[in-house]
Write a structure and sequence with these properties.
The complex is a heterodimer of chains A (226) and B (103).
Chain A (H helix, E strand, L loop, with lengths): L1 H7 L13 H36 L1 H9 L3 H27 L2 H31 L17 H37 L9 H25 L8
Chain B lengths: L11 H21 L7 H21 L7 H27 L9
Helix pairs in contact in B: 1-2
The chains are: A mainly alpha (226), B mainly alpha (103).
């Protein structure tokens, strides 16, 4: 009896003192992450609301400005991000199975895809800068419309939304680096891989935001002759 | 005490199928944007995006296996997002109705 009481207070990563069971601890971590993600939904939601209002106010300018974005590069980048989500969930699966080498392998792949996405994003932004499509540039000019003000609104939204998304990607890359390091040090096993699972939720969330950003920014009325 | 917390481990095949579906949906949404659907093009684009979101949430984020509480929080969050978007839009959509100076 005495030893049982003693055992109940032995802490492990999978079962901290304040939890009754490992399952309860895991559920608490997952719920906590989801609540954070809800605040993120509201954070991005404000931007989507602003986007909706201005797009409904200036549909033609938004279509022209949207068509100036490079749709091929955008589509490829979307696929890169989806691939990274796949490798992320495979890393979580390796965590469930306790296969450390596979966790590291898939996390590094995820990291690489994430960096490729950010690199392509940087390339696209440079292109926009060189085309004088960046609001704030003295030489700002969007071809094909006299309404330069609303065109600036589109590109302000474009840079703000993709910028905020990219900032989240940078945070994600940081998270991945930390858990790759921790996995290599042998911190995780099939009994405890919560940080990988939770980081995965964050990574997939950022992916979902892009799933909406891609059609809303790149694919407005592409059929119209410009 | 060393019992596995996660009882559900999806097969690699499941994840590959979900990934392929997501990639196909990306190609479809890109191609359909070049087709003249009038006002419906944004509806189609958003429908495809919602389907992709569901796939990522249900499979990659394991919402299928989440606790009821987590699901409730998620639905609650989406409800708040809907309030944010809809109430803002009711304002902007109806400002012209009263014909008040300065709207």
């Amino acid at each position: 009896m005495a030893s049982e009481v003693h055992n109940a207070h032995v802490e492990s990563l999978a079962l901290r003192e304040q939890f009754d069971t490992e399952e309860q601890q895991k559920d608490a971590s997952t719920l906590g992450m989801w609540i954070f993600l809800i605040t993120e939904i509201m954070f991005f939601g404000g931007m989507f609301a602003a986007y909706t209002i201005y797009r409904s106010a200036y549909p033609t300018v938004f279509a022209i400005a949207s068509s100036s974005l490079n749709v091929t590069v955008g589509a490829i980048n979307t696929c890169v991000l989806l691939l990274s989500s796949f490798t992320m969930v495979m890393a979580v699966r390796a965590g469930q199975l306790g296969q450390r080498k596979m966790i590291v392998f898939f996390l590094i792949l995820t990291l690489v895809f994430g960096c490729v996405f950010l690199g392509v994003k940087a390339y696209e932004w440079t292109e926009k800068y060189e085309e004088h499509h960046m609001p704030g540039q003295a030489a700002f000019h969007l071809e094909g419309t006299p309404l330069q003000g609303p065109a600036k609104i589109f590109f302000s939204l474009y840079f703000a939304m993709t910028g905020l998304h990219a900032a989240h990607m940078v945070v994600g890359v940081g998270l991945l680096s930390v858990i790759i390091f921790q996995t290599m040090k042998g911190k995780f096993s099939a009994d405890y891989y919560t940080p990988i699972d939770i980081s995965g939720l964050y990574w997939h969330f950022v992916d979902v935001v892009w799933i909406f950003l891609y059609p809303l920014l790149y694919l407005i009325d592409r059929h119209l002759p410009k | 005490m060393s019992g596995h917390v996660h009882e559900h481990i999806d097969s690699t095949k499941t994840y590959v199928v979900v990934l392929l579906a997501l990639l196909v949906a990306t190609v479809v949404t890109t191609l359909v944007a070049f087709v003249d659907l009038g006002n419906f093009s944004v509806v189609v684009a958003l429908l495809i995006a919602v389907c992709k979101m569901m796939l990522v949430a249900l499979f990659f984020m394991h919402v299928r296996y989440s606790t009821r509480l987590t699901k409730l929080v998620l639905i609650g969050g989406l409800l708040w997002l809907a309030i944010l978007l809809l109430l803002t839009l009711t304002d902007f959509a109806t400002r012209g109705w009263l014909n008040t100076a300065g709207k």
